[in-house]
Specification:
The protein is α/β, with parallel strands linked by helices. The protein has a single domain, classed as Alpha/Beta hydrolase fold, catalytic domain (Rossmann fold, 3-Layer(aba) Sandwich). The protein has 9 helices and 10 strands. α5 links the parallel β7 and β8.
């Protein structure tokens, strides 16, 4: 009996410690920032330049990378990356879009890379807005494509619900952060609501531009079941694209991804029926 009580006591203690840890370090688990020195250089072979997007009223300075399209440009991709790393990692995806004749602008959120501040949901939204304002000064709304990957689906969909754009593309998105936490086997046993909301579903309901969604059947980070709840919010059924065997971080390894991306981004020549 004493042994059983000891085991129960130890188990309860571990459970409480885990709960406290989740409460204290939830932001660190969500926003896995990697800082860079301001003078650090990037080693991409493709032509690129660093751009700082500033909101002096909010004391926000967002670092971004701009890659021009190969040959002529059909528009620009505003790329909002996942929750870990910085542009040293995410800049490598520029070629997927520049090869399709699109300029490419990717930002680092507050606290990431060379950006100032600390990461937060509102900070993600404000950063996305700065990227759009920069693009809107140079491109027509019909030439702007908003792209969100994983947690980047939050700021991407939030932005698309509030501005004019040609297309919103989400890669491995979730229905909402609360939904995602319920589907995580570890987090589901702790009654701690996530501090972040990122209600992608609500943003999609308010989005007027065309919507497309990519997801893999073997995604263990954001289960396909979470993305499936968004299916009714994607008006064109052919734009809800499931990659068989695709995981959370490797959809670009599949020819199906590139084929569908080309379909979504291709321009129909003027006068073509």
């Amino acid at each position: 009996m004493k042994l059983l009580l000891s085991i129960l006591g130890i188990t309860a203690g571990i459970y409480l410690l885990a709960m406290v840890g989740l409460i204290l370090f939830q932001n660190r688990l969500t926003f896995q920032t990697v800082k860079m020195r301001p003078e650090a250089a990037f080693e991409f072979q493709a032509l690129h330049k660093e751009v700082y997007l500033e909101d002096r009223e909010e004391n926000l300075k967002i670092h971004s990378l701009f890659f021009p399209a190969k040959e002529s440009s059909n528009g620009i991709i505003l790329y909002f990356h996942g929750n870990s790393g910085n542009l040293k990692r995410w800049g490598q995806y520029a070629s997927d879009f520049t090869s399709l004749h699109y300029d490419f602008l990717a930002i680092d959120y507050p606290g990431y890379g060379k950006s100032s501040g600390k990461p937060s949901e509102e900070g993600f939204y404000a950063s996305a807005r700065l990227a759009y304002e920069w693009a809107a000064a140079k491109y027509k709304p019909s030439d702007i494509v908003i792209y969100g990957r994983s947690i980047g689906s939050g700021p991407a969909s939030h932005l698309a619900a509030r501005v004019d754009a040609r297309l919103l593309i989400l890669e491995t998105p979730f229905y909402s952060f609360r939904d995602l936490s319920k589907k995580n086997p570890f987090l589901s046993i702790f009654p701690i609501p996530p501090k972040q909301h990122f209600p992608v579903n609500e943003h999609l309901e308010a989005t007027n531009c065309e919507i497309a969604l990519f997801h893999g059947t073997k995604d263990r980070v954001v289960p396909l079941s979470s993305a499936m709840r968004l299916k009714s919010l994607v008006p064109k059924s052919e734009n809800f694209i499931i990659i068989p065997g695709g995981k959370h971080r490797n959809l670009s390894d599949f020819p199906e991804y590139h084929g569908e991306l080309k379909r979504l981004l291709q321009r129909v020549p003027v006068g073509t029926l």
